[in-house]
Amino acid sequence: MLVENTLPILLSRLDFAWITSMHILWTPLTIGVSWILFGLEVAWLRSGDERWYRLERFFEKIFIVNFGAGVATGVTMEMAFGILYGPFSQAAGPFFGNILGFETITAFMYEAGFIGLMIFGWNKIGKGMHLFATFNVALASSLSAYWILVANSWMQTPNGVVLKDGIFQVTNWWHAIFNDNAIWGFPHMWMATMILGFFVLASVSAWYVLKNRHADLFIKMLKPTVLALLICTPIQIWLGDSLGTDVAHSEPTSLAAMEGHYHTYLPNGSVNTGWHLIAIPNAQNDGNVFAITIPHVLSLLETHTLNGKVTGLDQFAPEDRPDVWVPFYAFRVMVAIGFFLFFMALWGTSLILRGKFTAAELRRRPWFLRLMVFSGFLPYLAIWTGWWTREVGRQPWVVYGLMRTYEGVSHMGIGQEIAWFAGYIAFELSVWAGAWYFFSKIIRKGPDLDSPLPGAHAPNEAAEAGGGLATPSFAKPVLRHER
Amino acid sequence: MLGLEHVATTLTTWWWLLLSLIFLFYIGLDGADLGAGVFALFSPDEQERGAIMASMAGIWDGNETWLVVAGGVLFGAFPLVYGSAFNYLMIPLMIALWGIISRAVAFEFHVHATGSKKFWGRAFAFGSFLAPFGAGLALGATLQGFPMKAGPAMAAHSPGLFVDSPVPHFSGTALSFLTPFSVFTGFGAVIAAGLAGGLYLCARFEPGDEINRKAQKWTTLFSYLALATIVVTLIWSYSIFPWAAAKWTGANWWVWVIWLLVILAFAYKSMMAHAMQRDFVALLWGEGVVALMWFAMWATMYPYIVPDTWTIAQAANPADSIAVFTLFMTGFVPVMILYNWYQIWVFRGRYTKKAMYSSH
């Protein structure tokens, strides 16, 4: 335990960790699913196949509940930097604040400006305009992820700045924005959102096939989803590996903590190349009490050579070392999930190749469907553990190598910190419970297959502009084959 | 010669103006939504609350996000203020954020709920009350200013480990914000929102519809409450804020008198339009009052961002950062206004309680 980790500092970290963890439960699904909804809308408009439209409208219901939860927890995030980490916000403002400002203006608001049209605009705007709204929501949410990852990556690898008069002044915007960690960090996170989106929708679809409800409709969804995952999951493993080698040289304490790698050299003087499957770090944080070790694997992973040197924690002063428990095990959980999801994609693809991917055949293999339903939860855990690895691995720094976490903490009393924590536990657990309850309710109810398609005259007057009392008088942009 | 520093101050002033505008969009647009939520606190049934929520289903998120944009602009252009003022305002912001959370999820949950419909309806209404109350509390507290000190913010907890920094941090206590004045502005904000919400509901629902009828009475009551609140706020501010008193009674006193007369004229027009049930016109005049009062407040505070605490020049970002922020972000402001306007326009028109609820 570090001397500087006194109770108020730890509490401030817990306060922030809690709201971040509860926010990252929602936004990745919004990002991933928004692109999938866009894909479904394009498929419907191009093929004219009504089933794509039904699927889109059904998944859209889950999407909007998730979106509401994301907004609810996201507004807090925007304020929380200043509330909980005021001195950090002041010092990092000239770069970090700019980037957060970019995010609210070019992404957060951009998304909000089209989400209403996307969800409630059916029948009020033309099909082309609606497709445009869906596209903008998808692009905006990905842009948001981009800016947030730039900001967070910069905290890992603060390139392009100097610390002068107590604040970080930008000397090179390109280096700061395209900092080392962001190059791989953003693609890795973005791919995680796509994989989460695909697996959650695959999970829901598999459940319907398993229960034999609308089985053919959801097979139509499941099949391309499995094929998309066959592309996404191996790319994600490669991106993760690339990020890892980058962290190994740009943020060596974090990598060493992730791998429980204390000793750069073995007692006999040769390079320590061993990778620990399991390790129990000792209380002094200077070695492992117990470890199952495989030689050469660590060097292979981080340097892509058999005996390459990987810097261990012994190269750093004890007060500069992060805690090992969290990064070590969180990282392993994430990696295990990554490979399991790749396996699921392979299994599904082999079923497709063997022509077994029909509702009847799949129900004869219920374990594929059951594991697919279960797989919808795993990417959430992978995202959580990945983020915890990243954040705990950076400690004791808030800006790696330049500003220590305790220097960035706001002026707060313990009572304030506990009030924040208790309040957000209550509010965000309610949001979580509520959202998942309504997900299950929407799923139990199933897709609506009867309401008229947009463009057909709606018998429900309220579905029209202004409750049927005002008709948009502007020329609607429509696709050619609409009528 | 105009040095770099001078350019930076000019650009910072530009962002001070834009910040005022963005806050105004938030107050003007979401204020009405929040006020309609306060109105829903007194709704007798879920059908009415549901209809009120449905009437803003397509636009509430965009309206609320102006607050996030204001936060982002504050962080981007004035990080020194953002990092100290939000620390000071922790509890008021917490109250407002919990209100916003309750409201945001209630919008999505209420539609799907069966057994818990009442719970989420209440969460929407109560959240709509908490948000302006917390925001008003924060505004009043900001006008009072706050104590700052250079050096480590949490020094007491990690002695001897700190690097010296000349940046001043907030140094008061958790309850520094709490005064009779800030509590009063908290309720004042709820009253102002209540008036905006009443005007909105009158304009949103068909004349003769139940909600419209109730909102007419509500609006009349709240317009008197709001007038009383304005008078009390002005007198109270005059007596406790020397910077405000000095400006209002200084050489340019006649500007403030004219401004006040214009505000009163707008308020009169709004009340007359309301009495004649020209509801949308009444809403616009009412929003005009909000805008004029808001700009008057910012003009009174100039050159401070936080009175007696941060001036625009002290709070300025390094020249390079403010230049980059200006170059890349200014152009997006009209774009944001444009697509928000389009979204609101698509969802325009009058509704009835029944039709709105059934389509919900």
User: Are there runs of chain A of 5+ residues with pLDDT below 50, and where?
Assistant: 458-479
Shape of chain B: globular
Content-based structural category of chain A: mainly alpha
Strand content of chain B: under 5%
Strand content of chain A: 5-15%
- Whole-number tally of structural domains of chain B: 1
Task: Please give the share of residues in helix of chain A.
Answer: 55-70%
Q: Which blocks of ≥5 consecutive residues of chain B have pLDDT under 50?
A: none
Features of this protein?
heterodimer; A: 483 residues; mainly alpha; two-stranded antiparallel sheet; two-stranded antiparallel ribbon; 16 helices; 6 strands; B: 360 residues; 14 helices; 3% strand; globular
What does this structure look like?
The complex is a heterodimer of chains A (483) and B (360). Helices cover 66% and strands 6% of the residues of chain A. Chain A is mainly α. Chain A has a domain at 207-376. Chain A has a two-stranded antiparallel ribbon with strand order 1-2. A two-stranded antiparallel ribbon of chain A has the order 3-4. A two-stranded antiparallel ribbon of chain A has the order 5-6. Mean pLDDT of chain A is 89; it is low at 458-479. Chain B is mainly alpha-helical and 360 residues long. Chain B has one domain (4-150, 178-359). Chain B is 74% helix and 3% strand. Chain B has 14 helices and four strands. Chain B has a two-stranded antiparallel ribbon. In chain B, helix 5 (90-112) packs antiparallel against helix 6 (117-144). In chain B, 53% of the residues are buried. Chains A and B meet through helix 1, helix 3, helix 4, strand 2 and helix 16 of A and helix 3, helix 4, helix 5, helix 12 and helix 13 of B.
